[in-house]
Specification:
GO biological process, one term: lipid metabolic process
CATH topology: Rossmann fold
Distance between the termini: 40 Å
Protein name: 3-oxoacyl-[acyl-carrier protein] reductase
InterPro entries: NAD(P)-bd_dom_sf, Sc_DH/Rdtase_CS, SDR_fam
Shape: globular
Number of helices: 7
EC number: 1.1.1.100
Pfam family, one: adh_short_C2
Helix content: 25-40%
Length: 254
């Protein structure tokens, strides 16, 4: 069977841990070369660094230390991807943070700047810099953004997180319109409760909604990675501007 991302150069932010790590491993398994762009090499859940694990399995990968709130860092990650692999075919803007549950009376300007710089600025400039490369390529490219069901629905005590992820959801739609003529597809994944190191550390999130999820379980990084693979591959050649919900049906009745 043909590998779905054979010969594709991919850059995945926040790929040392959680959803990003699983996306990177899945893409590599499907033939992609992978740049792991993160602020740290070591997975939060422990184990071998993502790029080293890919190489151990016979794949091609590199690690580029990247703070997505820094445009200079993002530019370096893009440049090093092109230098190492010859192109940039798929950009996954995965890096993000969750501040925990906060009422609007608890948030301050520092919280706002930190969250927006990572969750929204990182996506916007990651997309901008990737698009500059993809526009010059005959086959364009694909951009996959990680939003959240909190970007589509309101959730108590999550005003800043909802704002940041709502921005991701809507800029995905806009970029699909703007970049479509250049052969660049832009889509977003909107996960629900996914079991990662980030969510399991917060007792107010992990395992608290299982009974209200129609599929009766929290999601896994594999659930997210499989959707990212679809959106990055030619199987989604006519899909752009879409926010794909991966939540086990949690928001189906919203």
């Amino acid at each position: 069977m043909t590998e779905r991302l054979s010969g594709q150069a991919t850059l995945i932010t926040g790929a040392s841990s959680g959803n990003g790590r699983e996306i990177a491993l899945t893409f590599a398994n499907e033939g992609a070369s992978v740049t792991v762009a993160d602020i740290r090499e070591e997975p939060r859940e422990g184990g071998t660094p993502t790029h080293e694990l890919i190489e151990e399995r016979g794949g091609e990968a590199q690690f580029v230390e990247t703070d997505v709130s820094s445009v200079d860092d993002l530019q370096r990650a893009v440049d090093e991807t092109v230098e190492a692999f010859g192109s940039l075919d798929v950009m996954v803007n995965n890096a993000g943070v969750f501040p925990g549950m906060q009422s609007i009376s608890e948030v301050d300007e520092e919280d706002y700047d930190w969250l927006m710089d990572i969750n929204l600025k990182g996506v916007i400039f990651g997309s901008k810099l990737a698009a500059e490369v993809m526009r010059e390529q005959d086959d364009g490219g694909a951009i996959v953004n990680l939003s959240s069901i909190a970007g589509l629905n309101g959730f108590d005590d999550s005003s800043l997180y909802c704002a940041s992820k709502g921005g991701v959801a809507n800029v995905t739609r806009e970029l699909a319109m703007e970049l479509g003529p250049d052969g660049i597809r832009v889509n977003a994944i909107n996960p629900g409760i996914i079991e990662t190191a980030m969510t399991t550390e917060d007792e107010e999130v992990a395992g608290t909604m299982t009974e209200t999820i129609p599929l009766q379980r929290d999601g896994t990084p594999e659930d997210v990675a499989d959707v990212a693979l679809f959106l990055a591959s030619d199987e989604a050649a006519y899909v752009t501007g879409h926010n794909l919900v991966v939540d086990g049906g949690l928001t189906a009745g919203a």
